[in-house]
Amino acid sequence: MAASNVSPVHDRQRRAMRPHLPMRPLWLCRVCAAAWPCQPARLLLTMEYRRDRVGLSVYMAGLLFEATADLIKLNPNPAPSPADLFARFVGWTARGSESAPTTLGVVPTDPAGRDGPPLSR
User: Fold this and answer.
1) CA 110 to chain centre
2) Whole-angstrom Cα distance, residue 52 to residue 84?
3) DSSP secondary structure string, 50-90?
4) pLDDT digit string (tens) for 91-119?
5) pLDDT, tens digit, for every residue of 82-92?
6) Which residues pair with 7 in a beta bridge?
7) Which of 35, 39, 19 is nearest to 27 (CA)?
8) Which DSSP category does 115 fall into?
């Protein structure tokens, strides 16, 4: 997996590929120092698991387990929020999770400014 989880980093002499992998036990990206999985890592993981979203979720859940143990050892008080860690590691793997929230059960407003369903004629 390490070979496919890379993004280009420009070098003056050559084009190098550096992996967006976690620096453990801090769980920061080795390339951009953002909380891992950073956006480039998420994109690359999504591409790698594009035909197996369940596999991606299972993989990330395993890493969530490892990261939770590491981060609690490093900073037990206050411990990382379980909800924040879930969103960081697993929550983004669901289809459409990065789109706007849906409004289930709410009838959209008519472009003409009327509320409710369009009138049939």
Assistant:
1) 34
2) 24
3) TT-HHHHHHHHHHHHHHHHHHHHHH--TTPPPHHHHHHHHT
4) 999 876 543 333 333 444 444 544 445 55
5) 999 999 999 99
6) 18
7) 35
8) -
